[in-house]
Amino acid sequence: MKIAASCFSMHAIEALKAELEKIDEPAFAATYLCLFDQICNDPEKLEDVTTQICEHIASVCQENSPESIYFLMLYNFFNEFLMRSMRTCSPSTD
Fold first, then answer.
1. 54: part of which helix (H) or strand (E)?
2. How many domains would you assign to the chain?
3. Most CB atoms within 10 A, among 46, 67, 83, 93?
């Protein structure tokens, strides 16, 4: 299995992010960071997709208004946080 890599490396970061957010012990976090580094430094497990990402971004910019792109980016960046906040702040029905 190859992990797509680009200047963004978002998929690799997101793959570990959920687990790293739950870790309270520095030793465990260091282990996951070491694993991340091993994966990112192994050319057999990575594929450079920078060109494909740039082409996709260019096509998205041609098909959508800047405002629409901005809104979708904000939504995707903050949706999970806002949903979590809404669950946490919702009044209990018990």
1. helix 50-63
2. 1
3. 46
